[in-house]
Structures are given as C-alpha cells and as structure tokens.
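Appendix B, record 7
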Amino acid sequence: MECVEIDVKISKDSIPLLIHDDTLDRTTSGSGLVCNYTFDEISNLDAGYFFYNSNTTIRVPSLNKVLNEVRNKKKSINIEMKPNKGLEKKNVEKIVNEIKNFSLENVFFSSFNLESCIILKEHLPQALCGFLNHDFSKITLNDTIDICKRYDFFSCGTDFESFSESIGNELSSNDILVTVYSGKNITIEEAQNLWKNNVTSVFVDDPTEYKNYY
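Structure tokens (predicted):
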C-alpha cells in the first residue's frame, strides 16, 4: 500500500500545518520558530525555493487542506506528530480536532515524542499509532517493546542505520510492525533485504523507482 508521510506542527494561532523543522529557515523563505508565526504569515512564504533553487509559488499547506486532498484521492496518510517546543500536547489536540471529520480507516500516526503518542491514544484509542526510535542505546529494544505493548502502539519505526536483523525479529515476534526510514533514499535492493527481515514498510523521499519496479 502506498502511504504519504507528512510532518505536522502548529502555528502561533494553533493551526496544524505541514513542516518538518522547528524553524522556518531551512525549508522556507522565512526565519525563526514556526510557533512564533501565524498560519497566514507562514502560508505567504516560499516553501519551494529550498527544493528547486528558484522562486516558486509553493506554499506551506494546512493539515485540513491535505486531509481533504487525501480523502478526495482515496489515499493513505501517515501523520508524524513533530516535537513542537513544549507545545506537544496542544499540537496533538489540534491534530485530533482536525481529524475528527475524517475517517481513520487510512490514517496512521507516528512520533519520536512518546508524550505525543500517548496523548493521541488517549483521545483516539482506535487510532493506529507507531512509536519512532532512532537510538536503541537510549531507549533499549526491550523498553521499546514494553512501551508499544503498554500503550497499544501498532508499530515501531527506526532508521536504516539502526536497524538490524535481530531488531526486526524481536519486534515482529512481539506482533509489532516494523518500519524503516533513512536520511537518504532507500534503494529497491536495500528495501528487498529489509522486507526479508520482517520490515513491513519503508519510507522513501522519491518513490519513482518503486513505481517502476511494481
């Protein structure tokens, strides 16, 4: 199943929007913390220059706009609840408020922030939420498994460099789905090896190779 992953945090006026970083500097023409600007201010920034090295009309969209697009196109979506400079609780509550008018059938959630995952499950017990852990030296594999079982998280995501066959086996044997992401695009060959080691899904920036493969 093809699923689009998006990063969500809230603006100064508490509107959930799609942006990866805590600041505007890297991926938009703006500067400063996302939470210090209103959605209208952020939506006027160029969000495409970073990717295309030229001025664009690409803007940061609201979560509501993207959810409507996903529903209209009958796609699946994974909402990553980003750490939000002490606003994690409010961030999740605003996401929950936006999602209430949409079916959860093809909507998944994930976060590196345990508090965000727990709060989401308190508000939406039926939601499928995955816990992300990129450093098993800080939160051990056994602790990660305990966390997923205690809070009913259906999956655990980790990065390509941290993943191992033993991690895949342990998570899978505890009925926890395994997802793998990377700072670089995961090749088809790498993905095939991951799938052989109990990985359920991989996150890629450019799915072109996968579409051609299938």
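Remarks on this record: The radius of gyration is 17 Å. The CA atoms of residues 147 and 153 lie 8 Å apart.
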